[in-house]
Specification:
The protein starts with a strand and ends with a helix. It is of the alpha/beta class and 241 residues long. The longest helix has 23 residues. The radius of gyration is 17 Å and the shape is globular. It has a single domain, classed as Alpha-Beta Barrel (TIM Barrel). The protein has an eight-stranded parallel β-barrel, surrounded by seven helices. 49% of the residues lie in helices and 17% in strands. The structure holds pyridoxine-5'-phosphate. Pyridoxine-5'-phosphate binds next to β8 and α10.
Length: 241
């Protein structure tokens, strides 16, 4: 079986730093520890309000990192300009609402298709891999393909919420599974992310079409108790079981 990759999202190292207005913990240090302990890529989300990762973090992480940097950005002109300037290896386009606590759903591809198509093509011209963060629906996958994306990242938030509340998960799991298969058949690389824990990652990783997981909040939370190294090692084992 092929190796499933783990992207470690370090946004919440910056959240802790910003809570006290200090310069620690340093997201660059977290990125390098993750790199040295099995992370396949580092994910950061430069939000429009800069609530966690800041422009300087992007610059410093990009300069020091050897594994791929996956930059998550909203579909806006400002973010497109930043991506073209810093040229991370990967870009993942995500929706953004100012008032949300975290990314609450996938992109509305239909509403933004003209801008997205242009944005994807400009980013791909720089040989940057482009992913669209979407709700697991067949229509979203067909449209992602038409817009020129290389990969789709399936939003696992709903599944994780249902799982954590011990509610019925079968329908949502099947939606993710069918979407993953359909995307793979259409030659899109399939990723998954949002809200994943050891237990939900264990379930979702049963879907073989998914080749990459992007996990943040739980990794940073768990690291408080057992450290980044052990947490990353545990996740790598789980997704490659
Ligand atoms: N993937 C994408 C596209 C995201 O926007 C996020 C949250 O920033 C994640 C994965 C990671 O989610 P979590 O922090 O809940 O693990």
């Amino acid at each position: 079986m092929r190796n499933k990759r783990l992207g470690v999202n370090i946004d919440h190292v910056a959240t802790i730093r910003n809570a006290r207005g200090e310069n620690y913990p340093n997201p660059v240090r977290a990125a390098l520890i993750a790199e040295n302990n099995g992370a396949d890529s580092i994910t950061i989300h430069l939000r429009e309000d800069r609530r966690h990762i800041r422009d300087d973090d992007l610059k410093n992480i990009k300069r020091k990192l050897r594994i791929p940097l996956n930059l998550e950005i909203a579909p806006t002109k400002e973010m497109l300009k930043i991506a073209l300037k810093h040229k991370p290896k990967y870009v993942c386009i995500v929706p953004e609402k100012r008032a949300e606590i975290t990314t609450e759903g996938g992109l509305n591809l239909n509403r933004q298709k003209i801008f997205l198509k242009k944005m994807i093509s400009k980013i791909k011209e720089r040989k940057i891999r482009v992913t669209l963060f979407i709700e697991p629906k067949i229509a979203n996958i067909s449209l992602s393909k038409k817009l020129g994306a290389d990969c789709v990242e399936l939003h696992t938030g709903k599944y994780c919420n249902l799982f954590n509340k011990k509610r019925k998960i079968k329908t949502e799991f099947s939606r993710i599974e069918k979407s993953a298969l359909y995307a793979e058949k259409n030659f899109l690389e399939v990723h998954a992310g949002h809200g994943l824990t050891y237990r939900t990652a264990d379930q979702i990783s049963k879907i073989n079409s998914i080749s990459e997981f992007n996990i943040g909040h739980f990794i940073i939370a768990e690291s408080v108790f057992i450290g980044l190294k052990k947490t990353i090692m545990k996740f790598k084992k789980i997704i490659n079981k």
